Amino acid sequence: MTTRQPPTPAAFDHRMAVFGTDDDFVAAALPFLGEGLAAPGEPPPVAVADPRNLDLLRDALGGDAKDVTCIPHTDWYTGSAANAVAQAASYLTAHAGPGGRIHLLMEPVWSGRAGRSARETTEWIRYEALANLLFAPMATTALCAYDTRTAGPAVVAAARRAHPDTEVYEDPVRLAAELDAVPLPLPPADAQPLAEPHAAAVQAWARARGLPAADAELFAGAVAETAAVLAPLDGTAWLWGEAPACVCELRSSRPVGDPLAGFVPPPPTGPEPGPGLWYARQVCAYVDIRDDAQGATVRLQYA
User: Fold this and answer.
1) What residues contact residue 187 under an 8 Å CB cut-off, 6+ apart?
2) Is the pLDDT of residue 116 over 90?
3) Neighbours of 130 (CB within 10 A)
4) How far is the C-alpha of 113 from the C-alpha of 109, rounded, in Å?
5) The Cα angle at residue 231 between residues 230 and 232, in degrees rounded to 5
6) Residue of 181, 172, 171 whose CA lies nearest to 129
7) What is the dihedral of CA 98, 101, 102, 105, to 10 degrees?
8) Can you state the angle between helices 153-160 and 118-134, rounded to 10 degrees?
9) Cβ proximity of 17 and 28 under 8 Å
10) What pLDDT, on a 0 to 100 scale, did the predictor assign at position 271?
11) Do the Cβ atoms of 253 and 294 come closer than 8 Å?
């Protein structure tokens, strides 16, 4: 087991614990939750973990179990990595103390969506890296728990680079850029060109490719919102795939330029450089952004 606790920083404290047995999980989690219970003026600490691990924690906590909020991780991690950002931000707004003060034990569902493919794993490592920027203003303390029985050595090695309390921590922007350096595959030969990616046209295409009406409407809305952000578009949009994996690729003559684009919710009023990308990240399974010397390519995949 590996767990490190750096000196308490002024803002977001993003830690990592690696375990391979039930006893090691409890040994890492208990001191962390105890730290949260002892923090003056903080709300109860939260454990988001596998239900089986939550049972282990309740037994180990004894009488203190009533003061720890336990949430099955399948109830927290219900979609894409961007959904997890929204979930965390919403929870902090509703339940954290002043400045975002709260202790969160977080165990991703590596045996589910997050670990089902190398592509999905990349998205979650990106989320872990960008969390250091997204939650930097918050005085939140998070311990990300990685079970080697489900996460595997490659996932753990990648995750170490996203946590400041490890010896291999990488700057989040540099790590995200490394992940984005992998070229996108070319659109397939049967991709359909669309001169103007209006919502109605995209929705009709998605329905014809097998997406249910409600899903086709969501996908079309994500495409239209993203197109509005990227406008003026540089050339033709391209559509391909079959339900549920419908894909649209858009091209802009200017780069997006922001690694956090689409991860930060737009303000209630006023202009914002990426509201469409926020909506797209909430709706789509994947939003790939590739900047280059000529502008940006944005690829949306619904599922």
Assistant:
1) 238, 240, 247, 249
2) no
3) 22
4) 7
5) 130
6) 172
7) 150
8) 20
9) yes
10) 46
11) yes
Contact 192, 238 (CB under 8 A): yes
d(CA 186, CA 128): 28
Q: Name residue 95's amino acid.
A: H
Give the Cα separation of 270 and 206 in Å (integer): 32
Rounded Cα distance, 287 and 280, in Å: 7
Q: Span 210-220, mean pLDDT?
A: 96
Higher pLDDT, 290 or 6: 290
Give residue 208's pLDDT.
Answer: 97
Q: How far apart are the first and last CA of the chain?
A: 35
Closest C-alpha among 180, 162, 158 to residue 171 = 162
Residues in contact with 209: Cβ distance below 8 Å, sequence separation at least 6, in sequence order: 241, 242, 243, 246
Other C-beta atoms within 10 Å of 21: how many?
A: 12
Contact 100, 139 (CB under 8 A): yes
CA distance 237 to 251: 7
Other C-beta atoms closer than 10 Å to the C-beta of 119 total 12
pLDDT exceeds cutoff 60 at 10: no
Q: Which residues contact 67 (CB under 8 A, 6 or more apart)?
A: 37, 44, 45
Strand partners, 1: none
3-state SS, one letter per residue, for the chain: CEECCCCCCCCCEEEEEEECCHHHHHHHHHHHHHHHHHCCCCCCCEEEECHHHHHHHHHHHHHHHHHCEEEEHHHHCCCCHHHHHHHHHHHHHHHCCHHHCEEEEECCCCCCHHHCCHHHHHHHHHHHHHHHHHCCCCCEEEEEEEECCCCCHHHHHHHHCCCCCCCCCCCHHHHHHHHHCCCCCCCCCCCEEECCCCHHHHHHHHHHCCCCHHHHHHHHHHHHHHHHHHCCECCCEEEECCCCCCEEEEEECCCCCCCCCCCCCCCCCCCCCCHHHHHHHHHCCEEEEEEECCEEEEEEECC
